[in-house]
Amino acid sequence: MTHSINEEIEGSKSIRDKYFYWREQQRKQLSESANLFFIFSSATIGFILKVMVDKVNSPVKCWFYIFGISLFFLVVSIISYTFLVVNRLYDFRKTANFYDEGKTTKEIEYLTKEKGNLTWTLFGIQMILLAIGLIFFVFGLMTYF
Predict the structure, then answer these.
(1) Using a CB cutoff of 8 Å and minimum separation of 24, what contacts does 98-102 make?
(2) pLDDT, tens digit (0-9, with 9 covering 90-100), for 79-118
(3) Stated pTM of the model
């Protein structure tokens, strides 16, 4: 017989405290990781644009197109980060409203599950796009130098 985490945490205050502690740690790690990926994307975009602007009058080479592909993936990664942040803020606001309405933890878990899944999907998309962008960036560097 299976049971939900809510049934399990209702039985023991220490288990409930540990559960909420680790959920908070998970939220913090998600925020820090997403922010770090945003910084990597932004810094790489800045470097690429600097190189492209410095070489604007030189003949276009292969590295220029590879950097362009990298820019595309990095910009889309930043866009997914933006959606992730907006989605999380909306999720936090809705969760707070549900508590204000007196809903139970189990009801709130059910009502916010979709937003939570979307947050993790956007985080995965951000990571994948950053990885692809960085791969093209490295190839661009190899052809540039």
Answers:
(1) none
(2) 999 999 999 999 989 988 888 898 888 888 888 889 889 9
(3) 0.80
